[in-house]
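FAQ

Q: What does a record look like?
A: Structure on top, sequence underneath. For example:
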């Protein structure tokens, strides 16, 4: 017998038929004798609709937001998960399963006060564990918790992944299965490279890089949490037939296991290629080369909530002036330019240049720690395809390369093949 947290995303609970199908996945595990807690998202599109309604209201500045009271935003947008938790509990009951719904505040899942983007602070799992003992399946509304002000808080978009992993950690589950509309994590985006392969296992750190670099399978925060608490997390499909052979395999269910690197015996040097489109490059020319300059530039950008990514500073030729280049999401470029204009005098630089429509392509793998030459291979492969590199950043387990947007697909395919990822 195992203790399993099963999470179902928006497309998996998109309508009543699919909710019924989800109930069959849950029944399979219950029938096998496992203790089961289920976490659900809202029906797909629902949260967008709810957010749209809030944004369509007259603007009144309020707590945590210049346009509306973020506590009321949370009251509205948390409702999507309340609906699906109740519907799934009913579907399970109709199959003879002892199930009940739980809202975040009932457990409670305690969060901080950052309404709209709250972080989970504490979950007392003992209550749920007691119910497991009574044979009850808990169907928990994801994405929501209870803030210190005693009001509903939501965890930020995609937050029900984080709910699921946090609950798995709190009840010391053997694993957390994230059911979604894809059947696992791939070596790269199969829409770009049809030869992409599903990975059997990915290390937490690699998944963290992939998630933050645009592989949108899991919310980044959920991967951080899984890594800290060592929650073995499976990414698998809810569209597979719930009763197909192997679906209930307690050790190797179909999908991708995200786990500690120690569990991965045959570690490849490179695990995957990720990409992020719509990056903009901003260059400040002839910036004064003195202490405090970087703080003078990136401090105000951070205060404006602009996420700066790659930063490249040149060594100055004569010790007085240098160039500073960095990237921001294209959507933020105008705001970034406005912020930079304001600090131009105090920081001291000559010109601001910017270029939209860049992409960042990244090579990820924990095997890089112990292998030399991984970056050189990428540079050579891109050069052979005449793809120009605009900026490079590296970490222990990742190389990110900024290129012109139209070359994204070619670059992804080139890197995927040069590291042998399309070979079985
Ligand atoms: N329903 C929420 C959203 O769309 C949470 C989630 O699906 O994870 O962001
Ligand atoms: Mg999601």
């Amino acid at each position: 017998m195992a203790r399993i947290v099963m999470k179902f995303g928006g497309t998996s609970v998109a309508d009543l038929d699919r909710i019924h199908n989800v109930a069959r996945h849950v029944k399979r595990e219950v029938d096998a004798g496992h203790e089961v807690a289920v976490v659900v998202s809202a029906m797909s599109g629902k949260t967008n609709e709810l957010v749209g309604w809030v944004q369509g209201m007259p603007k009144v500045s309020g707590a945590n937001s210049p346009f509306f009271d973020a506590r009321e935003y949370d009251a509205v947008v948390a409702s999507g998960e309340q609906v699906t938790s109740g519907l799934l509990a009913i579907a399970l009951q109709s199959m003879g399963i002892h199930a009940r719904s739980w809202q975040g505040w009932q457990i409670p899942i305690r969060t901080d006060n950052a309404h709209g983007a709250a972080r989970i602070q504490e979950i007392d799992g003992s209550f749920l564990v007691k119910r497991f003992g009574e044979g009850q399946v808990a169907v928990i509304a994801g994405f929501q918790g209870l803030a210190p002000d005693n009001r509903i808080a939501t965890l930020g978009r995609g937050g029900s992944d984080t709910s699921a992993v946090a609950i798995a950690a709190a009840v010391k589950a053997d694993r957390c299965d994230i059911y979604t509309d894809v059947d696992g994590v791939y070596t790269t985006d199969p829409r770009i490279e049809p030869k992409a392969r599903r990975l059997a296992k990915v290390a937490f750190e690699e998944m963290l890089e992939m998630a933050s670099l645009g592989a949108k399978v899991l919310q980044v925060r959920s991967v951080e949490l899984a890594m800290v608490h060592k929650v073995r997390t499976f990414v698998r499909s809810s569209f597979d037939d719930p009763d197909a052979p192997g679906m209930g395999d307690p050790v190797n269910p179909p999908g991708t296991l995200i786990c500690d690197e120690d569990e991965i015996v045959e570690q490849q040097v490179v695990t995957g290629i990720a990409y992020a489109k719509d990056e903009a490059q901003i260059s400040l020319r002839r910036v004064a080369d003195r202490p405090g300059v970087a703080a003078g530039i990136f401090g105000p950008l951070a205060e404006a909530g602009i996420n700066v990514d790659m930063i490249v500073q040149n060594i100055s030729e004569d010790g007085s002036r240098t160039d500073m280049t960095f990237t921001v999401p294209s959507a933020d470029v105008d705001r970034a330019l406005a912020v930079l204009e304001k600090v131009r005098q105090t920081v001291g630089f000559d010109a601001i240049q910017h270029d939209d429509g860049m992409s960042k392509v990244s090579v990820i793998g924990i095997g890089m720690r112990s292998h030399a030459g991984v970056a050189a291979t990428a540079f050579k492969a891109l050069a052979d395809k005449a793809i120009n590199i605009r900026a490079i950043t590296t970490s222990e387990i990742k190389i990110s390369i900024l290129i012109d947007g139209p070359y994204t697909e070619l670059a992804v395919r080139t890197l995927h093949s040069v590291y042998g990822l399309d070979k079985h």
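Q: Is there anything notable about this one?
A: The chain has two domains: 3-262, 272-418.
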